[in-house]
Amino acid sequence: MTLKTYRAPSMAQALAEVKKDLGAAAVILHTRTFRVGGIAGFGAKNIVEITASTDRRLPVRRVGAKPRSAIGASAGGGGFEPATYGRGGRGGGHPPEARGTVLRGEVELKPSPVNEPVARDPRIDRLAVRAPLAPVDEGATLSLQSEIASIKRLMGQVLQKSAGSGAGGGLPDVLFDQYMRLMDHQVSAELADAICGEVRSELSPAELSDAAVVHQTVLRRIESRIKVDEDATSFERAEDGRPRTIALIGPTGVGKTTTLAKLAAIAKLRHNKKVGLITCDTYRIAAVEQLRTYANIIALPIKVAMTAGEVASACESLLDCDVVLVDTPGRSQHDTERLDELHQLVEAARPHERDLVLSSVAAEPVLERTLERFSPLEPTRVILTKLDEAVHLGPMLNMLERLSLPASFVTIGQEVPDHIEPASAARLARLILDGPANAPLESAMA
To answer: Which residues of 419-440 are buried (b: 16+ CB within 10 A; e: fewer)?
Structure first.
């Protein structure tokens, strides 16, 4: 059997070539359309490809007849070879998108629409590998979400400018600059709208034209939305007579152990309190030794507990302390089973405060997922870590607004005990609006 392939810019020209070369009785085995040339898809040209033969013994498909695979039938009496199906080229199969028809006779060599629907061979579905239309991993998901957020900010800018061109609409130019600064620092559009709306209502037209006044007012409005625990450094024994017990909870890698060591040093060295340590983080390599090293340096008792019963016993053995700090194992926000275990450990300690430790460098979707999964542990306060590494702190404001819990401490580096300080609403507001690059991060407790 002789197979020939013809290519032309249109179906009519390709059919003309077939008829000219093989005659009016030629059998068309397959047709397809593809694009060639161009740059990045622009300027490409359509090419029609026809595979034909003069062998009249091939099974044919009349117009309106049930479609058959001519190539599969001719290759082996109706057999099917997966190794060759879909290779393309002469004598081989063609891609699924190729639209083929077997015709015979002069009348049936008339051009037909390239996009004419053709019945799908069911064997294709058995061989095809279906790929889900979704990001390949969490990094790709975060990248996509970041791009969507950038588009939202851009659309907000366009809409705000459009509204400003109308009579009485939009924000004054000076206030709009602050609005865009909030958006650039990844404060949510809803929260930025609310803050700037409050500022516009508070200030007079003359004040709204003063950049310094507008900036200070925006800072005050941000500050008013941030709750802080004013008694975070009291470290006094609880009203029930037990040592003030503080448990640090949170996902992996946020700096819980280092933060706990800083809190222990502050309570012991600066407030002259008797401090006891309990660590449940027996999963992470060298985590116990890390905390034990800190404890030995500042002469603190430390207990290691692996189960809820051991946690309760450790707390009983430290009843003569003023403060007991509990270091819990980090848990992924996706690990439901381990989060349940963590809940049992925390309940056994009966803490007076449950500080949810969150990293300032975490993306907003990660923060949202963390809040969702750790909320059953009923956190009472928030500790913000790694402020020195953060580029934008807008997501933290969004999170604090949603969580409605006070912040107790922030950490600004690795040094123990200097790089920690009580949370300050005014300081956090400056970091959120002006960015860490323009707000000094030297510890206020140094």
So the answer is: bbbbbbbebbbbbbbebbeebe
pLDDT at 38: 65
Phi first, then psi, for residue 56 (nearest 5°) are -80, -5
Q: Do 212 and 175 meet the contact criterion of CB atoms below 8 Å apart?
A: no
What's the pLDDT at 363?
84
Q: Domain extents for the chain? A: 3-127, 138-224, 244-434
Which residues in the chain show pLDDT less than 50? 60-118, 120, 123-124, 126-131, 162-169, 443-446
Residue type, 19: K
Largest CA distance in the chain: 105
CATH number for the segment(s) 244-434: 3.40.50.300
Nearest to 409 by CA among 353, 326, 366, 333: 353
Output the pTM of the full model: 0.60
Q: How many CA atoms lie within 13 A of 438 on its CB side?
A: 11
Supply the pLDDT for residue 77.
Answer: 40
C-alpha to C-alpha distance for 324 and 310, rounded to whole angstroms? 15
Residues sharing a CB contact under 8 Å with residue 328, sequence separation 6 or more, in sequence order: 247, 248, 249, 256, 280, 281, 342, 345, 346
CA-based angle 58:60:62, to the nearest 5?
A: 165
| pLDDT at res. 313 | 94
**Which is it for the CA torsion 56, 62, 65, 71, positive or negative?**
positive
Closest of 137, 61, 48 to residue 94, by C-alpha: 48
Amino acid 248 reads L
Distance CA(15)–CA(124), nearest Å, equals: 27
Kindly report, residue by residue over 320-356, the tens digit of the pLDDT: 999 999 998 876 655 666 777 888 899 999 999 999 9
Question: What distances in angstroms separate CA 2 from CA 5, 20, 31, 105, one per listed residue?
Answer: 10, 16, 16, 18
pLDDT in tens, 209-251: 999 999 999 999 999 999 999 988 889 999 999 999 999 998 8
The tokens describing 395, both together, are: 């997501």
Tokens standing for 411?
Answer: 């950490």
In single-letter form, the type of residue at position 284 comes to: R
Count the neighbouring beta carbons within 10 Å of the beta carbon of residue 99: 17
Residues 129 and 131: their CA atoms lie apart, in Å, by 6
